[in-house]
Write a structure and sequence with these properties.
Elements lengths: L5 H20 L11 H11 L5 H17 L2 H5 L4 H6 L2 H5 L5 E4 L5 E6 L2 E12 L16 E12 L2 E9 H7 L12
Length: 185
């Protein structure tokens, strides 16, 4: 009876492939290999990002560009992972075609408090639901200027839209947003 080396070859190939996979998944560092403390601190500081006002402005600007374009799938991508976990895409998209946003102001960062950022935006909103065509508005389209504050959360190195508020409501519920910190001068 002749013995085949195929099972041994298969195990050898799998062990080589598995080792290569574990190195590539760990960013080139093999598990079990300890780096000197200085190298560990360097990796930690490179990976650690802090909430950044410039990035918050960029994300807010991009969000409102997508909203004004009616690109609701892209808007969904800006939502916080926590919100997405309770709001599936299909549910989020339901009825979005009945809203038009235009002429959004440039976003204004009001305040960053720990992992929360608050951005003020003013935008023209027009509801376009078919039932509104039966309403006699006399003045034409029903259009409103919305004064909003978008609440963003910093998570996993990125800003995510957590919630949207009406400006006048937020002035009552979170007045600390408008109180200057000592370091802000």
């Amino acid at each position: 009876m002749k013995h085949s080396n195929k099972p041994i070859q298969a195990v050898l190939i799998l062990s080589i492939f598995g080792g290569a996979l574990s190195v590539s998944c760990s960013g080139g560092r093999q598990s079990g290999v300890t780096e000197p403390p200085a190298a560990q601190e360097q990796v930690a500081s490179e990976g650690e990002q802090r909430p950044d006002e410039a990035r918050l402005l960029q994300r807010s600007t991009e969000l409102w560009q997508h909203k004004q374009a009616g690109d609701w799938i892209q808007v969904y991508d800006f939502l916080s992972p926590e919100f997405k976990s309770v709001m599936p895409l299909g549910k989020f998209l339901n009825g979005k075609e009945n809203h038009v946003y235009e002429d959004a102001s440039d976003p204004l960062v009001l305040k960053i408090m720990e992992d929360r950022g608050y951005v003020e935006v003013h935008v023209q909103w027009t509801p376009t639901h078919p039932i509104l065509s039966t309403v006699d508005n006399g003045d034409g389209k029903i259009t409103e200027i919305l004064d909003e504050v978008d609440e963003w959360v910093w998570s996993e190195g990125e800003w995510w839209l957590a919630q949207q508020h009406r400006l006048e409501e937020l002035r009552v519920t979170k007045p600390q947003i408008w109180i200057q910190d000592d370091e802000e001068g």
